[in-house]
């Protein structure tokens, strides 16, 4: 017999909070619903649970379009109407800012785009028999499917061809980047296929295996608001490319005027923010640790004939700021800023700081430290990953 509870508020990770004798984190409930749950795990301060049945359904509950939703671990929120998803993420972002950061600021309107078929980058897992899909939640079992509703249709067509035409046994992962001409990165210690030409015949312009281009071209290209943005199979880029273009425009407009300004872009990747800023700023220095992304960035600077933009291969921690910048852009990984980077930002503060975050908890922690020298102008959610629990955001700060 399950326990009947009322789901109260959203929590990071795809959970909804309910309270009995202690906090219970529920998977599969919409805030406001009354649900019957089964306790999955008991911890000292809280328990986790899953929905067995819905007693009183929310008006925001919808039918998931994916036939393997709830089995596949690729996304978590398909059963919730999209407007409610973004409202829940705003609520989690606000809670993180106030509870962790002690910051009294309400998020501005979320930056959003398409809910379905938005992903231009995919990382598929491959099972022992060559089956291709995503891991089941909390498992290494591969869940297969005909098409993923989050993927751009070009990726769904390519995966269909891979399944029909290509040898995948012995692989562990298949990474697809779908720009103008799609490229694929294959990983697997046990992969012994004699030829990679089948992937070219399936429609890829380039094939990489582990650390080497083995067939075709070595990069794919995207339109970055009138600029050419190329990436190799080993470089990160925002999967929701159309929304990324909107976010770049939004950032540039918020930082105007840029004429004559000196800009430092830390965690720069292949220049996603640095390149558009360099079109109008006086000087842009882009710092990136990944050697593949640095090579891509150098190529992008050359392709777009940007004379006042330079790429520097370095970690953010080792890079010596050493001079006054007007603007610093930060796009750190999930753990956020290290103490060394925060120290630099406090010792050599720019006039303006932009922080793009993929973790509301570490964003709140870092903003709390930065308020020693900066005022927070605005924070807003960027929904780069609709139908998943992931929350990205952008904050603008000015030095006092």
What does this structure look like?
There is one protein chain. This protein has helices at residues 82-99, 153-165, 197-201, 241-255, 274-278, 291-303, 339-347, 360-370, and strands spanning 3-6, 9-11, 15-19, 23-27, 34-42, 46-56, 108-111, 121-126, 132-135, 142-144, 173-177, 183-187, 206-209, 212-216, 220-224, 227-231, 262-266, 283-288, 309-313, 327-330, 352-357, 374-382, 392-399. The chain is α/β, with parallel strands linked by helices. It has three domains: 3-61, OB fold (Dihydrolipoamide Acetyltransferase, E2P), CATH 2.40.50; 94-112 and 240-399, Rossmann fold; 121-220, OB fold (Dihydrolipoamide Acetyltransferase, E2P) (Beta Barrel). It has an eight-stranded mixed sheet with strand order 7-22-23-21-20-17-18-19, sandwiched between helices. A hairpin with a 3-residue loop joins strand 3 (15-19) and strand 4. Helix 1 runs parallel beside helix 8 (360-370). The longest helix has 18 residues, at 82-99. It is globular. 42% of the residues are buried. The model has no long low-confidence stretch (mean pLDDT 96).
């Amino acid at each position: 017999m399950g326990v009947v509870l009322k789901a109260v508020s959203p929590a990071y990770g795809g959970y909804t909070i309910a309270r009995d004798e202690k906090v219970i984190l529920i998977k599969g409930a919409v805030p406001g619903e009354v649900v019957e749950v089964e306790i999955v795990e008991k911890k000292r301060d809280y328990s986790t649970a899953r929905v067995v049945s819905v007693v009183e359904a929310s008006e925001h509950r919808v039918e998931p379009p994916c036939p393997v939703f709830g089995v596949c671990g690729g996304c978590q929120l398909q059963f919730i109407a999209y407007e409610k998803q973004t409202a829940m993420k705003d609520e989690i972002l606000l809670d993180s800012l106030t509870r962790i950061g002690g910051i009294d600021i309400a998020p501005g309107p979320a930056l959003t785009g398409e809910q379905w078929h938005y992903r231009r980058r995919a990382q598929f897992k491959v099972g022992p028999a060559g089956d291709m899909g995503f891991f089941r939640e909390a498992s290494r079992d591969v869940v297969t499917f005909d098409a993923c509703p989050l993927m751009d249709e070009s990726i769904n067509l390519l995966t269909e061809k891979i399944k029909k035409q290509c040898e995948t046994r012995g692989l562990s992962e298949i990474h697809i980047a779908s720009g103008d001409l799609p490229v694929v990165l294959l990983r697997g210690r046990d992969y012994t296929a004699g030829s990679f030409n089948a992937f070219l015949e399936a429609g890829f312009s380039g094939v990489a295996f582990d650390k080497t281009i083995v067939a075709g071209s070595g990069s794919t290209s995207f339109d970055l608001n009138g600029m050419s943005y190329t990436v190799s199979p080993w470089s990160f880029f925002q999967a929701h490319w159309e929304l990324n273009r909107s976010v770049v425009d939004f950032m540039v407009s918020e930082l105007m005027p840029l004429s004559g300004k000196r800009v430092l872009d830390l965690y720069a990747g292949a220049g996603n923010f640095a390149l558009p800023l360099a079109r109008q700023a006086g000087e842009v220095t882009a710092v990136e640790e990944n050697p593949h992304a640095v090579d891509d960035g150098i190529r992008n600077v050359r392709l777009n004939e940007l004379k006042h933009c330079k790429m520097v291969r370095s970690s953010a921690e080792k890079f010596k700021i050493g001079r006054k910048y007007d603007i610093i852009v930060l796009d750190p990984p999930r753990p956020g800023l290290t103490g060394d980077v925060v120290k630099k930002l406090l010792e050599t503060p720019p006039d303006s700081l932009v922080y793009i975050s993929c973790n509301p908890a570490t964003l709140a922690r870092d903003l709390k430290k930065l308020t020693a020298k900066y005022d927070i102008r605005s924070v807003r959610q960027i929904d780069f990953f609709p139908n998943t629990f992931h929350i990205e955001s952008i904050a603008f700060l000015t030095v006092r």
